[in-house]
Design a protein that fits this description.
By secondary structure, the chain is an alpha/beta fold. About 35% of the residues lie in helices and about 25% in strands. It has an eight-stranded parallel sheet with strand order 5-6-7-8-9-10-11-12, sandwiched between helices. The longest helix is centred in the middle third of the chain and has 15 residues, at about 155-170. The chain binds zinc ion. Zinc ion binds near residues 125, 212, 263 and 316.
Length: about 425
């Protein structure tokens, strides 16, 4: 019988389901890729005596990381200098022709790095969905958000028609849990009419939408005053100077809604903007290490969470971030925002799934969800056990990653009893 159809028990010294209390000597029963039972090893073992058992007595099992905003097609090597967002972006654009030669390799490596860091779900954005083949091959579950750039295509209706058609094409023949959706890249690269049309079309289709929003001081300046270095990215962008904040502007062109995930929200997000985010039901992806590298400030995620905005974590790509390890990203957020470990572990897993509208399928160890989890080399006994586990996962302590019951990374195959 194929591995995924056989009932198997994965047990560990500690199981942290995230959606329920931790279980000492806990176990999950996996059948046909899904979690069929969660409990103590004793109880689950008694109930399913014929299931094979893989027991990691000195390890902790947690849900896999859900990376809600990333770009796979960048590499660690030769990142453009940070400091300012517009300076970095100008360098990146200059190097796009040279980048074509290594994007696919970078995407493979980025996906691999994420897997070895316990990631099970990846929301990736790339131009026209160019990194979909590497995501689909990786074994990860995930979504490619296909960015489109109207100045390369034509009039707004033509550009939107093109990207909708492109996404339909990308969806053909994909593995079961890999998907393609649309991304309206940003307020300074996609004109308002194309943005509005794309948001309407995707809403009509019941699709999801990804955007970058309120990321940098330069974006705030462009949207508000129509000036600054982003007024000349690609070509002359003449739609700035709205007198609005990026969040208000995005609302005015109908980009915000429950199906939309907005990355960053790092600079210039006021209380009034948070009100708009909460009212429209948009989700946020927090990428604090990228924000720091690009001089983009600190996102007010604590206030956003207090107001009921769904907040997830994202690594962004390797040209603005030091790693594809979402647990490391989360640990950085813990320091920055003063979160406890439990909040961090939740943000990296279940909240990521909620932000992407996937919480019925993944994000915690609960009966009925896909068996997406990571095995971590840690058996915490201190006051903040989730933090201990996050620290281990951030520091190379992931020893196995399982997606839909299938091991896609296993460093201790055969070593556990
Ligand atoms: Zn991004």
């Amino acid at each position: 019988m194929p591995e995924s159809e056989e009932a198997r028990i994965f047990a560990a010294g500690l199981v942290m389901p995230v959606s329920a209390s931790e279980i000492r000597d806990g176990a999950i029963l996996v059948r046909e890729g899904h979690i069929a039972a969660v409990g103590t090893l004793e109880d689950v073992g008694r109930e399913y005596p014929d299931a094979g058992v893989r027991y990691f007595p000195h390890y902790t099992i947690i849900p896999g990381a859900v990376n809600a905003h990333a770009h796979l097609g960048f590499r660690r090597k030769d990142a453009p200098e940070g400091g300012t967002f517009a300076g970095w972006l100008a360098k990146l654009i200059e190097r796009l022709p040279e980048k074509e030669a290594w994007t696919a390799e970078a995407a493979r490596d980025s996906a691999r790095e994420a897997i070895e860091a316990g990631t099970t779900f990846m929301a990736e954005s790339s131009p026209y969905g160019e990194c979909l083949p590497q995501l689909a091959e990786s074994g990860l579950a995930g979504t490619v958000y296909a960015e489109f750039f109207p100045h390369e295509i034509g009039a707004p209706d033509e550009a939107v028609q093109f990207i909708i058609g492109k996404v339909r094409e990308l969806r053909e023949g994909l593995p079961e849990r890999v998907d393609a959706q649309v991304s309206v890249h940003s307020p300074y690269t996609v004109d308002p009419e194309s943005s509005r049309l794309a948001a309407r079309r995707t809403r009509e289709e019941g699709w999801h939408l990804a955007i970058h929003l309120s990321e940098s001081p330069e974006e705030v300046e462009f949207v508000g005053d129509g000036t600054g270095r982003l007024a000349n990215i690609f070509a002359k962008n003449d739609w700035g100077g709205t007198g609005l904040s990026p969040v208000r502007y995005a609302e005015s062109i109908e980009l915000l809604g429950p199906q939309t995930i907005a990355a960053h929200l790092a600079t210039g997000v006021s209380e009034e903007d948070i009100e708009v985010l909460a009212r429209t039901g948009v989700a946020a992806a927090h990428c604090p290490r990228s924000n720091e590298y690009l001089g983009c400030g600190v996102s007010p995620v604590t206030r956003m969470m207090e107001r009921g905005v769904r907040v997830a974590m994202g690594t962004d790509g390797l040209w603005s971030s030091p790693s594809m390890n979402l647990f490391e990203e989360t640990l950085f957020a813990l320091e920055l925002q003063g979160f406890e470990g439990a909040t961090g572990l939740r943000l990296a897993t279940l909240e990521g799934a909620r932000a992407l509208g996937m919480e019925a399928e993944t994000g915690s160890l609960a009966v009925g969800k896909w068996a997406d989890f990571a095995v971590i080399e840690a058996l915490p006994d201190g006051a903040d056990p989730e933090r201990e586990v996050l620290e281990a996962a951030a520091g190379g302590g992931v020893v196995a990653t399982v997606v839909g019951g299938r091991s896609i990374y296993d460093r201790i195959q055969g070593a556990a009893g």
